[in-house]
Design a protein that fits this description.
Elements lengths: L5 H13 L1 H4 L6 H19 L3 H14 L1 H5 L15 H12 L11 H10 L4
């Protein structure tokens, strides 16, 4: 299926915004409305190769925050976690894991690997 033009995407969102009763889940018949929206969202999700929930989230951002928020990616609430090891340390651990296990062990276990990392002061 061909990807719709962005104007079509905005048009679909605008139609939903003009009919807020379709989005509202507080009123009676909410289950029917959700089914109706899902039936409309499934082809859109297929066209954009994403999940129906993504379409629902974009629609919600459009209704609550406007067009600019709907077209922009959601901002992270927390900064990304920094790595604990650098590339060289990772390489040392991988090399150790790919090598033979210590005498008395048939295989590497996560606990054994952690002990050897501490013992060799790789971190």
């Amino acid at each position: 299926m061909a990807i719709p033009h962005p104007a079509t995407w905005v048009h679909l969102l605008a139609l939903t915004a003009l009919c807020p009763s379709l989005v509202s889940a507080e009123r009676t018949g909410a289950a029917k409305k959700r089914k109706f929206l899902y039936a409309q969202d499934a082809p859109i999700a297929e066209a954009f190769d994403c999940r129906v929930r993504t379409i629902e989230n974009v629609r919600q951002r459009f209704v609550l925050q406007g067009l600019d928020a709907a077209l922009e990616r959601a901002k992270r609430h927390t900064p990304p976690t920094q790595k604990l090891l650098d590339g060289e340390q990772e390489a040392q651990i991988i090399a150790m894991r790919l090598g033979k296990p210590p005498v008395g062990y048939a295989n590497w276990t996560l606990r054994l690997l952690a002990e050897k990392v501490v013992e060799r002061r790789i971190t």
